[in-house]
Amino acid sequence: MSSNTDVSLSSYDEDQGSKLIRKAKEAPFVPIGMAGFAAIVAYGLYKLKSRGNTKMSVHLIHMRVAAQGFVVGAMTLGMGYSMYREFWAKPKP
Question: Where do transmembrane segments lie in this chain (predicted)?
Fold first, then answer.
């Protein structure tokens, strides 16, 4: 019995950076959503000091809603973009 050891495992050979770049090319709005989420969280932490007399819980709820809204918007745009690419931008046979 001989085992075939020439099996190509190219998906296991790529490092984290090249995998992230490949995935970002396949779905470009995912990194945009992640970056927007991080930006909103950073802005919320920065504004935490100068929130005035607003309660902490209200401030955190507003930041959570803003971050979730940005991510859902990016996902919606990404889905629309992928639908456009798949159905309308395809070359006709």
Answer: 27-46, 66-84
